[in-house]
Amino acid sequence: MKQLIACMLIAGAGTAMANVPLKIYKGDNRSDTVYSEKHYLVGVTSPDAKATVNGTPVHVYKTGSFGAEINLKKGENLIPVHLSCKKEKKDTTVRVFLAERKKSAAAPVETKTLEAPLFITTLPGAYFQYGNGGDRLGGSKMNFIDADINLTAVGETDYLYKVQLSQNNFAYIPKEYTKEGGEGASVVNTGSASISNTGKSDRITLALPCRLPYWNRAEIDPQTIKVSVYGATNNTNWLTQRNDLGIIDFVDLQQNESDVLTLYIRLKDNYQWGYSIDYQGNNLVIDVRHRPTSLNIKDLTIGLDAGHGGKYPGAWSPSGLSEKEVNLDIILNVAKMLRDMGANVVLTRDGDTGPSMAERKEIWRKAGVDIALSVHNNSSGNPLKKMGTSSYYKHINNRAFAEALHKSMLSLGLENFGLTGNFNFSLNGPTEYPNALIEVLFMSSLPEEELLADPEYRKTLASKIVEGLLNYLKEADSNR
Ligand SMILES: [Zn+2]
């Protein structure tokens, strides 16, 4: 962690020269203009200095960070910053230029219709997204799909193909996960289907004459997994369901449209423990994991992830804390606490490395984690106030887990930044195990930066993450 600079006297050229450290972190726009009247100025000085911004004294945090909100007038604004530390002083003027907001010229992405349908085949790592949009989290993902699936592209953007899944259903797929060729999408009759208990999961196998695209999603209340297979017409005339299944109550085949067959998989558990969908040859294989035999923490494998790392620092705080360091410290504390309770812990990183999202998911998938959580810290918003803690999930069946974590964090008296669903974060994508993300606090908030800079408080945060996980397991244990 970064060392704080105290007020000091620097000996220079035989005379003692005063030095009150000052770095303007945010809000000094020497090279640029701003478009909002409400302006935040954030600086960093010595923790024992006193600061005045625009004539008003402001609080200097233990990190040395201080800040003020200023209402700008049109054109040039000169904001005086006065620092004093012991007997030394420093005066600076910060210049900010407020201009009229320019109209945003960002054009929407346009999908061009292909002159002739193009036959493509999926490559490993392929996934569908609903539309052609995209933000820092990428386009909104439907699900990952297996390789060697024939598709027909009918449109394209620079990076995506628009594919026709059935008469009425379309999706987008990144071009990089496809190759040209194949036979295009087809409509075929399904073959036999079976359900069996493999010991750790219940397995549904649906025989098909070729690999078809599918879309899977979960529902709760009742706990259900739905898998739609595009280009499939039901010719499966029975589905024998023995009573030795571990989690599946029943499976119903529903022909929603003439070329879309949906497997409606009802679970007899009040919780979901993960499922995977793969092809073995041309057989569609859906494995629905059983509830772990014991939900005692010492019997479980817990996946932990500290966001960013290596050459990816994540967000910076004004005083120079990097998100990757804060995330790692919190996660290592969580890991230690869980190991002390006897849990098997699988970390995506335990040092300053920066594995890719795909590598992080692969580490958890290979280890067969029972449940997994990722820790990040947020940035943005008002730097002068506490912004709060937030938890995230993508699939609705992970809501209860994210909520348990969130409630536990809130018990510290933190501000509530919310519980967010449908979150398109890569590590919330997998369906193989329950997962959630915690954005602990805001690196950019001066009062929260002060909390995050305190190693003891990071331990407290870690203990609340552990408590949230334990609460979730306890809740699941008493509610089968
Ligand atoms: Zn982050």
Structure description:
The protein is mainly beta and 480 residues long. The chain has 4 domains: 8-98, Immunoglobulins (Immunoglobulin-like); 112-180, SH3 type barrels (Roll), CATH 2.30.30; 188-289, Sandwich (Immunoglobulin-like), CATH 2.60.40.3500; 297-477, Zn-dependent exopeptidases (Aminopeptidase), CATH 3.40.630.40. It has 5 helices and 32 strands. The strands form 9 sheets. It has a 6-stranded mixed beta sheet with strand order 28-27-29-32-30-31, with helices on both faces. Helix 1 (323-340) crosses helix 5 and helix 3 crosses helix 5 (455-477). It is globular and about 90 Å long. Bound molecules: zinc ion (ZN).
Identify the notable features of this structure and list them briefly.
480 residues, mainly beta, Immunoglobulin-like, SH3 type barrels, 4 domains, 5 helices, 40% strand, globular, binds zinc ion
Instruction: Output the structural class.
Output: mainly beta
CATH top level assignment of the largest domain: Alpha Beta
The percent range for strand residues is: 35-45%
Distance linking N and C termini = 45 Å
Q: Report the mean per-residue pLDDT as an integer.
A: 92
The level of helicity is: 10-25%
Tally of DSSP helical segments:
5
* Corresponding CATH superfamily of the largest domain: Zn-dependent exopeptidases
Count of extended strands: 32
Report the uncertain regions: 9-17
Bound molecules: zinc ion
